Fold Methyltransferase.
Amino acid sequence: MQAKWTENDLFLFQHLIQEDADLENALEQSHKNQFPEHEVSKTQGMLLSILIRMSKSKRVLELGTLAGYSTIWMAKAIPDDGVVVSLESELDKYELASKNILCTGLQDRVDLICGPAAQSLQKLIDAEVEPFDFIFIDADKPNNPLYLRLCLQLSHSGTVIFGDNVIREGELCNAENKDPKVMGVRQYIQDLGSCEHLDSTAIQTVGIKGYDGFTLTFVK
Ligand code: SAM
């Protein structure tokens, strides 16, 4: 089925997503540096962009920058006085993302922070920064439950939280699977469901990135 999913995604890219030199450059640089192809797909990038514009989000928080591909999608979706704060633990990823963002000219709208996301989030909480309107959780999945607890302290009523890669080829519901990534997303979803201040849903997806899915949460 993967070939069919890929073929259909390529059709969707061709008809729905305009070529964008900044995004293409970020992808090209990422592949040239042999970074894992873990960035969102083009249609997923557009989904983030539409959600940010629909929610009129100005302050965006991203966990997991990689080469800055999704960061650029989101930076292009916010107004001039908005900001995307993106957290990345690996120095080589942080450095390439910084270069890629500089190439777009959007550096005034992007704040990249290098270091483990949990520490960076705690620093943002301690600094009492303004809460974020849109949060994209896309870093190491075992820490998703911790990220949720920290991100909720950086949220306000109306914040939208997008959690990527939560279906994990259908292993989410397999209680026998002790992979820390699967266990992380399972706990994350259980935590979302048990928090009365949150409305959450999840959508399973297939496409060029395989079989996966995402959660979408509204902070009440
Ligand atoms: N959001 C990116 C995109 O769509 O273009 C893809 C992010 S990729 C799925 C996950 C990223 O999280 C990797 O770059 C990885 O180095 C980073 N990461 C892993 N563990 C992390 C941690 N503890 N803190 C911050 N970033 C981490």
In short: Residues 38-40, 64-66, 69-70, 87-90, 93, 116-117, 138-140 surround S-adenosylmethionine (CB under 6 Å). The longest strand covers residues 155-164. Strands lie at 59-63, 83-88, 110-114, 132-137, 155-164, 198-207, 210-219.
